[in-house]
Design a protein that fits this description.
The chain is α+β, with helices and mostly antiparallel strands. It has one domain: Winged helix-like DNA-binding domain superfamily/Winged helix DNA-binding domain (Arc Repressor Mutant, subunit A, Orthogonal Bundle), CATH 1.10.10.10. The protein has helices spanning 4-15, 19-28, 31-40, 48-55, 59-71, 92-104; strands spanning 46-47, 75-80, 83-88. It has a 3-stranded antiparallel β-sheet. Strand 2 (75-80) and strand 3 (83-88) form a beta hairpin. The N and C termini lie far apart (41 Å).
Length: 105
């Protein structure tokens, strides 16, 4: 059984959990999004239509998944004329996740 001190310490750690990490794992909980996230490391900037073609999904579906990755802080987008291209977000969390994705290959 936990001591009172341990209980308080664990409670503080639980309250201090990073919501960004929770959002990232929620986004990567979808198999298609997880595959798309891995694709972003292969190309410098991948446009929605490129992701759709590579992942064998429709452009609207690719756009939806990429938008969720962006909202969760895992990807960033850049408009290039009528196209929107995505790349991994330059964050410490994404760098750590990249190592995990590459280890799986």
């Amino acid at each position: 059984m936990l001591s009172t001190t341990q209980h308080h310490r664990f409670t503080r750690q639980l309250k201090a959990s990073d919501p960004t990490l929770v959002q990232a794992f929620a986004a990567l909980g979808d198999a298609t999004r997880c595959r798309i996230f891995g694709l972003l490391f292969i190309g410098k900037e991948l446009c929605v239509s490129d992701v759709a073609a590579i992942a064998h999904i429709t452009v609207p579906t690719a756009s939806h998944h990429l938008r969720i990755l962006e909202l969760s802080g895992l990807a960033i987008s850049q408009r290039m004329g009528q196209m929107v291209c995505y790349e991994p977000a330059p964050t410490p969390l994404v760098r750590r996740l990249r190592r995990l994705v590459e280890a799986e290959e």
